[in-house]
Amino acid sequence: MIDNVLMEDKKEAxxxxxxxxxxxxxxxxxxxxxxxxxxxxxxTSFQDVTIYNARPRLIEGTADLDSSGFTLTKNDTSxxxxxxxxxxxxxxxxEMQELIxxxxxxxxxxxxxxxxxxxxxxxxxxxxxxxxxxxxxxxxLREMSEDLxxxxxxxxxxxxxxxxxxxWQPFDNVxxxxxxxxxxxxxxxxxxxIDYYYTGYGSANLVAAPVYNPAHKFFYVPRxxxxxxxxxKQLDSRPGHSxxxxxxxxxxxxxxxxxxxxxxxxxxxxxxxxxx
Length: 276
What we know:
Blueprint: E1 13-21, E2 33-34, H1 37-43, E3 44-53, H2 54-60, E4 70-74, H3 85-104, E5 108-117, H4 141-151, E6 161-170, E7 180-183, E8 193-198, E9 205-210, E10 218-220, E11 228-236, E12 247-249, E13 264-273
């Protein structure tokens, strides 16, 4: 769904390098564990990719959330300081819940958490994401969903269907470098997605990531403005729908040397489709 999103950048594509988990992990019995710069570098390698401008595809309707795993919309936020967690929870969470209801048609939406990323990270966990990954794993879809419903004192119903989303919005300034690249689900064989464990918070959480395949088609949104929101699919087990949208930050080789630092907030949300 696009809400008057303008083609502000005519750039067709950029050639860049992105890190993938090494292909040697595909088919192995064990899984990589990543939670620091050192473990990321040990388990991943750079690949040369072409990253296409998503704006034309979105505007012409050849990519959308359910078929490709991503869409772009608008949000004029009331938040003044994204570094204040209380303000974000009180003001921004309801904005994102309403946005997901509007864009997806979910009857209920619950926020799991948010993460602010800037040029001055406090740890590995809130630095720019530097390898292609998914935030979660389909094998944990029901467990994660029912855990979040339990925290909200909601009793799951038999017909409910669960889908997880990520929203990504810049603040302070237009994104001039370190934008988010994401893979079109239609170009991603599900067999390319393997398990890995994210250990950045001191515990091993089962998540997922693809290994490199030259067939993967990457997109990004050039010069995202502070009122634009990228919505990407995290988990969806419904037949005929995108299941994942792997993504990563990347260094844009066409960015000016004095480009402004990217500052962004992402929220992770559960959409509940009641199935009535």
